[in-house]
Amino acid sequence: MKKQAREKIWLVSILAGFLLVILWHNFASAAKETSLLPEEEKANFTPLYPYSTDYFSMNENLAVKVGIDFNESVPRKIAVIDSGADVGIEALTGRVEVYRDYTKDNVLKLDKVSLSAGKVIFFADKRYHVGDLALKGAVYHMGYFDLSRYPALECEKKYVILSIVCQGRKQIFLDSDRDGDFSDEEALGIYEFDRSYAELLTDTGALNVVCTKIAANGAEVALSGDFIGHGTFIASLVGGECTAYRGLARDSRLMIYQIFAQADRTEQKYLAMALDDALTDGAEVINISLSLPADAEIIKELRQAIAEAKAKGVPIIAAAGNYGAAEDSLSALARENGVTAIGTLITAESYALGRGINLEEDFIPYYSSRAGVEYVNFAVAPGAAVAAVPAWMEEKYMFDEGSSIAAAVATACLAHALGQDNLGGKDNYTLRTQSLGYAWQKEGHGLVQAELLKEAESPLRMWREGDYICVENDTDMFYEAYFTAHQSWLEVPKMTKIAPHGVSYWLVKETEHNFGEMALVELYINEGQRLAAQLCWEGEQTVTDGAKKEFTLKAGQSADFYFDVTAKDATLEAALEILRYDDKLLPHGRVALWLYQPDGTLYVKKDYFGVSFAGEMQMVETIEVCNADLGKWRLVIAAAENLPLYNQSECVGTVEIR
Predict the structure, then answer these.
(1) 103-125 pLDDT, tens digit each
(2) Which part of the chain is CATH 2.60.120.380?
(3) Distance of alpha carbon 81 from its chain centroid, rounded?
(4) pTM of the model
(5) What Rg value do the Cα atoms of the chain yield, rounded?
(6) What is the location of CATH 2.60.40.1890 in the chain?
(7) Contacting residues for 422 by C-beta, under 8 A, at least 6 apart
(8) pLDDT band for position 294 (50/70/90)?
(9) Which of 75-84, 324-333, 371-380, 528-537 has the highest mean predicted lDDT (pLDDT)?
(10) Class assignment of domain 11-102+229-453?
(11) 457 near 475, Cβ under 8 Å?
């Protein structure tokens, strides 16, 4: 196709007077997947221009964090179910083997037209020259590819399509320069067979599209591409590669399954169809960097597709969601049996290179969805990265964060881990994890690592009775085993022997923790095999009325405080310590508050207060609770991520209930 100069329409702004970023104006939300795959609380796909242009170093840092050999070849078939992909950008050229589209938005109906003398066709009161495309016995259809159908493109251009069916051969042509002449255009066949794509001009850059369907008579075609940006970002982070950039799973064979072309327009049935086709196409790992709200009902077809993947030993990695700190807020999709849910860890290195903010340590952001008491296969992965974006956005690489990115990193981890195993994923495996010391709700099993961990198929059975862990052994064997608790406030036995034919008991001790906080206890046997049953240990410490609790939070960190509300009216107060700086008194930090009711719903959200560039700075925030539901209320305090911009590194204060 003909290439034309690209124009830039970028919005340049200064963030907090320090950080220069480039934002695409009015970028559509890809994580607002639809009413069925909806907006996560902090999921607007609005990527920033990265602070560093050393993209290799950025992804190398991510690789080190999760144990990936950045230079290792991983020729695994990885399915990415998302908003499609731009197959024409440098990072993805030649790397997409399969492209299937399930959306209705991309299907175009064409009108039948006739060839006139002089090798021309008249359509919509305009004459189009076809030259050597005038074929005896051919059937012609024409129509419009209207870019205004895709709001994110912000483009009103229309391109005329010509389909030709002759002697069983089907092709389409696009008038890419809109000059009314098809004789100088290249044929576009179905991507599955010829790997071709067309390059069109939008108001901001090039739009690369592929053909995924041509009806037998040529009257209906599907032109597919990433009209949002999210799918391209995820696919390139997983398996993109070119001179300037490399994804985390080098040489992976990408398979793209497009289930939406616009925000708010898809259905669960399309996701089910994509899963079925991915299994048929031989996918070895499936990435779904999308989510559904915790209370969504999973349709039967989708549940069956997930079960089929589990039966075939094909792992599914899904975003945990960015629904905020509400308890048990994991995406409904992510909690399905057979799906590994991945939450977000922000690494200090990613913020330094991506946002120009220097943090003292990593943190789990307030928006990352939380698990509940019920066991799910839940872990976290680095969720801030740089990846390639579609050519129509003009900028080649951008920075973004959220559980979608974390799920892509975990997908690459699993691809590397499978590369170490000759079974190639034909058995049920899970990734080894590393505890970060957070409560179970925040980190689950911990930080994923690119190493397989076999689940033990053991006759041992583990459960909890009061303050004791119980393990039953019905065999004639002694087992050498050890317990591990992911959170430091729970003390469990270490190396131990489990005697045959009986039940063994071990006392567990608790130290100070927040009321309602949960710790994960696991049992490992047989050289690191993990017992299939895990226990979530819920702390029973209470916070009484009138008692103050102190908090110290690094930039980006959050803490949960649980309160027993025993009266209909209550007052919660958070106060920052006063910090003397030269001759000024400043709040020690900057925090935001979220208060959740006993049923887990958000009661109120208070914006950040504390240190700022304003003249008067707020030291205290009060929340009045009226006619309250009695029970356990949870207050989440989140430290601002950009504290270093205020020359501070932590938030110190107290919280109390009256």
Answers:
(1) 999 999 999 999 998 899 999 99
(2) 548-657
(3) 11
(4) 0.88
(5) 27
(6) 461-538
(7) none
(8) confident
(9) 75-84
(10) alpha beta
(11) no
Helices (H), 40-111: 55-65
What is the CB neighbour count within 10 angstroms for residue 413? Answer: 30
CB neighbour class for 250 (10 Å; exposed up to 12, middle 13-18, buried from 19): buried
Summarize pLDDT for 34-93 with one digit per residue, the tens.
334 544 444 456 788 888 889 998 899 999 999 999 999 999 999 999 999 999 999 999
The answer for residues whose C-beta is within 8 angstroms of residue 583's C-beta and 6 or more apart is none
- CATH 3.40.50.200, the chain: domain bounds: 11-102+229-453
Which residues make beta-bridge pairs with 580? Answer: 585
CA 27, CA 39: separation in Å to the nearest integer? 14
Q: What is the mean pLDDT of residues 488-515?
A: 84
pLDDT band per the 50, 70, 90 thresholds, residue 423:
very low
Beta strands 490-491 and 570-576 are unpaired
With 0-12 / 13-18 / 19 or more C-beta atoms within 10 angstroms meaning exposed / middle / buried, residue 359 is buried
The fold adopted by the segment(s) 461-538 is Immunoglobulin-like (2.60.40)
Positive or negative, the CA dihedral 261, 264, 269, 271 is positive
What is the distance of C-alpha 588 from the center of its chain? 33
What's domain 548-657's architecture?
Answer: Sandwich (2.60)
